[in-house]
């Protein structure tokens, strides 16, 4: 062993190229992109025998060949660092590095500007870390709003359909997927610009929703199929539609032709993209428009009447079937829009609807089943919570946080945030 | 009151029946469908005890759908090419090899488990797959308990080295111990002292992330954030925000095709490939020329296990499947199939346990040969062989892992396609 080490040192001293292809420790010393020259690096073997040393050259590079694979200690002589340059991490002047057979190994010493006494190594570390934290909080709140709006669009349809027909539609996530992929066909196959394809796809979604009610759910209801059976059927419809999309479009992520990977823009602490802002704007306008329509138009009032009590609404002259069809068409159109927005800001995949379905249901339940405005509030709370909770919990568990809120709120207010208490008896 | 008319009832029955039948179908056999005689379907559990049925049946359990669907075509082509060459050279034990293709799906679906049932029911002796370590983990017990060899061309999770597999699990892809080491070294070589890791929360992602972390911090770098993410999440903005807060100089992105969702998110939050150094791995090193505008990935580097596949091998693959764009893991799939056939020939039996017993033997120590026909001739002459494949020398360790491997380092150009920079070889252990 001593002999080997001696041979290594000897060969190094002779600058023999014998180790050029063999095991080597090497690295480049840089401070903020500038090479740092004249710094002494010493390498010793695991049991403390000197192996060799090197001095960083004009490009900051250094290289020490070693005799064999194994563990080596690499030490940077801090006294040889130029004035104004220090190790960023004081305690890491000596590194224990594993070298593998036949390979070189890169070793990195992180350097920073500062004084040798260590006082100025990272002058504004504390304040920059806390500002980075608040930037993240602002960013997460913004993302929460953005996700919440998409969920709200979907949740609105679920809530209205539940309100008017009592059906818990598990295929609602697939309405997002169908809308998004309808826009994809118009966008890529027919070559229409996304701005043209999107409104057309929303119309297709509306027609799809109308057709579903007219030829599928309506007849099922007229045959007095039970609500639980219909719910199970909706799960079947969801699986069928999901795999139909998989069959037709494949399992890979696909983007639209336009607005892919847009550069970010900075709004104060928040980074976003122009497309993200426009999508949020469209979503807010649509949500407000639907809200106003429900409150002030005759159709909206009729919808709420059916939602309250279908039998009473029918007996007061409202065509319940017509209202339900309109609700389906509108719910599907809004869901399709949500899918297109999700596809634009994220990406299209056959599972995209399924991925937000749970969150939509959480929003609807949280807000109070069957109340349109409850669904909006619930969806926004869920969206915000999913994103902001990642400050405290690992991001891979972010959905859990939203569901925890759902459980806690329902324990305290079983009817949801805006729901009314069920009348008993 | 039952209102279904007789015709309606007949229709309902027909629909149900056709659904049930479709569920059973799907796997295509490319040769000798006779092996799936109904009488044999119940014997799968007893298969290990029997000495095999004389026909080497190779089941491909590779991704046709799901996150890794882009890896599927080259892997299937590798298996098909190998089977074609084996059968042209006279087959195994004097009979042509049967290949059955099935879909492995991904970890979000249960397709792999159904495919394995289907393969086992058809007396499969060797299953080539799966591509994803996560999927392999869900089916490894089922396969090895049936006495069938599981031979993955692309699993790189270090977990499988120590997994209790009854000596029936093999792979031609090197454990991520090597890829992680090379990637960490590459990051340090590029001078990034603060490094973040964003990885899939699964067997593959966590395993590789741990190796990269070990390599980076072992060489003097600092891991400032290590964020596993849920691959099924609706968006990754929170995950990326966490990375951004840590302000890294480099990011190792260990993912599958979620990459097409994550890269725009990174760009949006101002830590895209134009701002920090981003590194891909074998799970996401793919051709993104159709997914991103020009220049998006320029400068991104990545690692991929496997030596350069020779041009003539690529030509042969193209003859099998003219639509191939990528060649990732095609050599590994090809070698896995050839090795299985050679092991069956050497063992004189097509039973899974017999094949497993000879696999390590034919991979090293003996007269070197590089194609099936030559190796077969040597075996028939009673010689010990050492198969050197397209993917590398393929010398199995006792755990059934390749003990030596090559990792390629690649870099993306402005058109979002990647090209090789260099190849590094090394021993996995040590």
Keyword list:
heterodimer; A: Immunoglobulin-like; ABC transporter involved in vitamin B12 uptake, BtuC; four-stranded antiparallel beta sheet; 56% helix; B: 430 residues; alpha/beta; Rossmann fold; 2 domains; 18% strand; globular
Count of beta strands of chain B = 15
Order of helices and strands of chain B: HEEHEHEHEHEHEHEHEHEEHHHEHEEE
Judged by helices, strands and strand pairing, the structural class of chain B is alpha/beta
Total domain modules of chain A: 2
**How are the strands ordered across the major sheet of chain A?**
5-4-7-9
Low-pLDDT parts of chain A are: 1-20, 118-124
* Percent range for β-strand residues of chain A: 5-15%
Under CATH at level 1, the class of the largest domain in chain B stands as Alpha Beta
Radius of gyration of chain A: 32 Å
Low-confidence stretches of chain B: 23-50
Determine the mean pLDDT of chain A: 85
The fold-level CATH name of the largest domain in chain B is Rossmann fold
Oligomer: heterodimer
Largest sheet of chain B: 7 strands, mixed
CATH architecture of the largest domain in chain B: 3-Layer(aba) Sandwich
Corresponding CATH superfamily of the largest domain in chain B: Response regulator
- What would you call the structural class of chain A? alpha+beta
Domain count of chain B:
2
Radius of gyration of CA atoms of chain B, rounded to a whole number: 23 Å
Helix content of chain A: 55-70%
Helix share bin of chain B: 25-40%
Structure, briefly:
The complex is a heterodimer of chains A (425) and B (430). By secondary structure, chain A is an alpha+beta fold. Chain A has twelve helices and 13 strands.
Describe this structure in words.
The complex is a heterodimer of chains A (425) and B (430). Chain A is of the alpha+beta class and 425 residues long. Helices cover 56% and strands 13% of the residues of chain A. Chain A folds into 2 domains: 2-123, Immunoglobulins (Immunoglobulin-like, Sandwich), CATH 2.60.40; 129-412, ABC transporter involved in vitamin B12 uptake, BtuC, CATH 1.10.3470. Chain A has a 4-stranded antiparallel β-sheet. Chain A has a 3-stranded mixed β-sheet with strand order 6-1-10, with no helix packed on it. In chain A, strands 2-3 form a two-stranded antiparallel sheet. Residues 1-20 and 118-124 of chain A have low confidence and may be disordered. Chain B folds into 2 domains: 51-174 and 310-399, Rossmann fold; 179-305 and 407-427, Rossmann fold, CATH 3.40.50. In chain B, helix 3 runs parallel beside helix 4 and helix 11 runs parallel beside helix 13 (372-380). Chain B is α/β, with parallel strands linked by helices and 430 residues long. Chain B has a 7-stranded mixed β-sheet with strand order 8-7-9-10-11-14-15, sandwiched between helices. Chain B has a 6-stranded mixed β-sheet with strand order 1-3-2-4-5-6, with helices on both faces. In chain B, strands 12-13 form a two-stranded parallel sheet. In chain B, strand 5 (149-152), helix 5 (159-162) and strand 6 form a beta-alpha-beta unit. Helices cover 38% and strands 18% of the residues of chain B. Chain B is globular. Mean pLDDT of chain B is 84; it is low at 23-50. At the A-B interface, strand 9, helix 2 and helix 10 of A face helix 6, strand 8, helix 8, helix 9 and strand 15 of B.
